[in-house]
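Subject: Predicted fold for Sodium:proton exchanger, 413 residues

User T.R. writes:
Posting the sequence so we have a shared reference for the thread.
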Amino acid sequence: MTATLLVVASVFVLWSLIDRWLLRSWITAPVFFALAGAVALLVTPAYGLTDDLNTEIAEKAAEYVLSLVLFVDALEVRDGLLGRRSRPATRLLLIGLPLTILAGVVVGVGLFPDLQLAAVLVIVCAVSPTDMAPATDMMRDERVPHRLRGILNLESGYNDGIVAPIFAFGMAWIATGGSEESAGAALGDAIPASVKAVLGGIVIGVLAGYLLRGADARGLTTDRAERIGIVAVPILAYTATVLIHGNGFVAAFVCGIAFRLARGPDATHHRAQLLEDVATTAGNFLWFVLGGVAVVVGFALLEWRSVLFALLMLTVVRVVPVLIALWRTDVTLPERVLAGLLGPRGIATIVFGLLAFNGMSGEEASVALQLTVATVVLSLLLHGPGSLLAALLFDRYRRRRRPGIPEQEPATE
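User M.O. replies:
I've generated the structure tokens; pasting them so everyone works from the same file.
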């Protein structure tokens, strides 16, 4: 453990020294930490990494990291509940995401017929949410229309929170045996857990938001104290909900929405910097772990079906539902294709994959780990800095964009 902490701390110090240079080189933090994790595993005798991940401590740590990420995602939305581009984003979340999960299950069952349907559902839920952090250089590219960036950022902020209850249902289904007969029992557990989570998240988020706003208005607190208090809010929401047998992930996500609306989006954004830094630090550590696991999986476990599954999830299974969801909207066809291919996977997939790995056993756990690693690593290659996809995609989009379509987001919907 001491050696591991030494390596991790050294990597973080190195990153802090060269981060500005990395940004100029278009090397994102996820890419840097994943590469560092891979190198660390290759040069140190740490091939028991997968055993270390399959522990209760690792599972709990991952759960709290995801609760922080979900809360931060909910805070980042501006201009009301769904922002300015509410209609396209809502269609992506309520039409595109369910279709992606459904298509992913069909692909998963076809490629891995020996897996239980419950296990396939859990794995697909793990690899479906998008995360724009690994593709920040692509999102900064001027060839990506401003309004499309808003839609994609909003989608990535909400989709992991929407997937969380489905993922929890799948895990409960596995725990009850994974048979068709046990699906009803799992659903009977998942629905009350989700209801408790929504109610608990609303209550804690509203109370925390109003109390902090009142304390600030009366001069009872300081900016530093409020920043620390905001870090504790998602942990409080997650822990309190788990204690009453609710879904902690859903609670953290809903709590973030309620807190933002109660505290006020401008004040929340100003005072949530510490929370964002904590979430970023935890997320970077997970990217480091992913890099190490990728080496283990690549050398010992990975097979062609896993690579094919990951490729399909990042392309066809993502693009077709997006095209359907955005049909008959003001989003042009080139923009729809661009939105479909701009679907990187990140922290939510890593955490969900780790939880699936811990919650399964035998071959199912191995496949869950393979598919998680294959999807995220392939996503880094497709959406990361200097990717061929970026060059080809943007050039083709620029040639096909209809003249007269504004690239800046309008002031009103």
